[in-house]
Amino acid sequence: xxxxxxxxxxxxxxxxxxxxxxxxxxxxxxxxAIGLGGAYMAISDDLSAMYYNPAxxxxxxxxxxxxxxxxxxxxxxxxxxxxxxxxxxxxSFTVVxxxxxxxxxxxxxxxxxxxxxxxxxxxxxxxxxxxSAPGRFSEAQQDIIEFNNVDLDNSAYRLGFSVAYDFGNNxxxxxxxNLDYKELVSVQGSGSxxxxxxxxxxxxxxxxxxxxxxxxxxxxQPALGFLKNWETSSFGLKFSRDIVVSRDYDVTSTLFLNSxxxxxxxxxTSARINSSADEAQEYPYQIxxxxxxxxxxxxxxxxxxxxxxxxxxxxxxxxxxxxxxxLRSVTNFALAMQYDFSAENTFRLGxxxxxxxxxxxxxxxxxxxxDIDMLGVSIGFDTTFYSSPISLGLYYKFGEGQVRIADRRxxxxxxxxxxxxxxxxxxxxxxxxxxxxxxxxxxF
Length: 444
Hints:
Layout: H1 2-11, H2 31-35, H3 49-52, E1 64-78, E2 88-96, E3 99-106, E4 109-134, E5 141-166, E6 171-198, E7 201-229, E8 233-241, E9 243-258, E10 270-277, E11 285-295, E12 298-307, E13 316-317, E14 321-322, E15 330-340, E16 346-354, E17 368-372, E18 374-385, E19 388-405, H4 409-415, E20 428-443
Antiparallel strand pairs: 1-2, 1-3, 1-20, 3-4, 4-5, 5-6, 6-7, 7-8, 7-9, 8-11, 9-10, 11-12, 12-15, 13-14, 15-16, 16-18, 17-19, 18-19, 19-20
């Protein structure tokens, strides 16, 4: 039974979880920028400038841009989760629609709009683990099957409008107003069944929990950017902040407990609970700076992005599950090289970080936190196809850290039994995460 509850809470009560909830650099955008690992703040000379640095719109040379067939693979391992010490692995594969933008120029002013998928993932995971354990009612062993299943649909879209003013001397000031829509819908379940022979009679017991939750956020992001070009170098700067204008969080949980022996009348053997909330998560101020310089056919670009700390009192839905949290200050870096073989063929290589914003605090009850810093490497190539510039390439991110799954303790609270002892580690487990993204982009 302890193993059953362990699995149930691992998945069924994970609450508000986006694939980028614990990171700010989840999905890179724009063909050239992806190849550079996001080190694009001081370059921003195509339509993805509206995403990275709106001031770059003044130096844009194309009217339309689109990326297609972006493929994403994600894998997360949480070690020693199951009752027999096995790890739990979550995998997903997604086709991401990408980026589309357009612009026009009117004297010293440039205008543009874009639509981008800033996060997108689908997961269909089901895992069964079979093992034997000491019996509870006899010296014979019991056979246990633990199971987890996750069906998850996560999406985040950004619609943005930008304007830039070229005030001469290769300098520009730009502003953007972006509207984000983020939606997570997930149906998850977990539990176990056990079979034990006692006096020749099979005894069956088990536990099952399922949950459906949705978390919908509408966010406005104002941004202000600056870009200055010299003969062989450039400098870019941007300030922005995400502001939640509405949130709709809803969760429905179902619990069933079966025991071959009578339980105390205070024990809750079944339950169905529905809860809703609209408490918004606060997000940090963002400061991005970049510098790039050209040396012959080689371009070197570097970016630094700083996200301020968010200190807020966690909001508990129904006094049990926290759906807002504190965020640590985070600094991400990107360093990239571009080599021009010719006017039409260019190679790019980038190195970047995607560090965690999570704070693991054992004093916060029933919290699920993923604290994994990630390192990424990107590779890209530009050429032409039927006279249209195209970009293609991929990037890979990986990292190890910790995951806290204290939300498994919710089951004890609901059922009213001490189902498993303290693990003496505040429900913190080691974890590994990696992702691979391949992309194709075209300007026309």
